[in-house]
Amino acid sequence: MTAHIGLIGGGNMAYAIVSGLIASGYPADHLHVADPAEASRHRIASLGAKTTALNTEIVEQASVVIFAIKPQVFRLVGEPLAGLFQDNQTVLSICAGIPIKRIREILKLQSNQRVVRVMPNTPCLIGEGMSCLASDQPLADDQKHALADLFASCGDTLWVANEEAIDAVTAVSGSGPAYFFLLMESMMSAAMRLGLAEPIARKLVLQTAVGSALMARDATETPAILRAQVTSPGGTTQAATTVFEEGDFSGLVDQALIAARDRAQALARD
Ligand SMILES: NC(=O)c1ccc[n+]([C@@H]2O[C@H](COP(=O)([O-])OP(=O)(O)OC[C@H]3O[C@@H](n4cnc5c(N)ncnc54)[C@H](OP(=O)(O)O)[C@@H]3O)[C@@H](O)[C@H]2O)c1
After folding, report:
1. Which atom of ligand 1 is nearest to the CA of 96?
2. Looking at ligand 1, which atom is closest to the CA of residue 120?
3. Which CATH code for domain 176-269?
């Protein structure tokens, strides 16, 4: 039997999840979305999903309820729903920085009720995301597959061993798109300083990023080997990578990811 999926919050991530599920064949009449804004409901309804302004309707109708609201409003949205969840329902949250323990407290869930935290990233909006899932209790493999499948239509998915890993995941894939955008920005500025016009700089950098990402994803070699393969001794690539190494590029990346992980941990404590 196909599960009824409910989303609380009908913003960008909800739109990406619902459109991905419908595109992959999920029956639209089994998808329910609540959002206070009529414009958001209209956008989701245009995909074929059912919409409501009442979050309680989602809890009544869906066996899997996904919280897709901003973390700042989780308490405000969750408290009126406290105690309404049944034992056979699964609660998922994509809200950054809200630990499962707090979700259980706010929604007044028992320890046997299933709660899963998911960390997606922005490329989910174009079906190329990376979503990592974690639970605070052991789940059967078929349950894990079914829950990961909800996000598979937005990109790749992965279960991590425990919720603690979600802070590291946030630092790597959650915030990761911004690191690549930063490198693209810097390369485009540098290309223009080398005399290339903006449209040319943009095209060269973006297509190089796409080509390199696809190559690294599909190759059997590691990125380190792929890099060695394009770095001839005394050549142009080596001239550039030597400058990166002298500026301790790897050390800087290390520090940046630690800072992101620490910030995720601090947000979870707030
Ligand atoms: N975007 C990403 O790439 C990304 C990546 C990882 C994690 N996340 C997480 O995903 C969550 C959603 O992000 P998003 O980008 O989809 O945000 P968003 O576009 O702002 O969507 C949130 C939606 O929730 C609605 N909302 C506000 N109050 C509500 C209420 N009381 N009941 C039901 N819905 C309510 C908002 O309506 P109004 O606009 O009218 O307030 C908005 O439509 C966030 O917690 C974020 O941390 C996002």
Report:
1. 47
2. 6
3. 1.10.3730.10
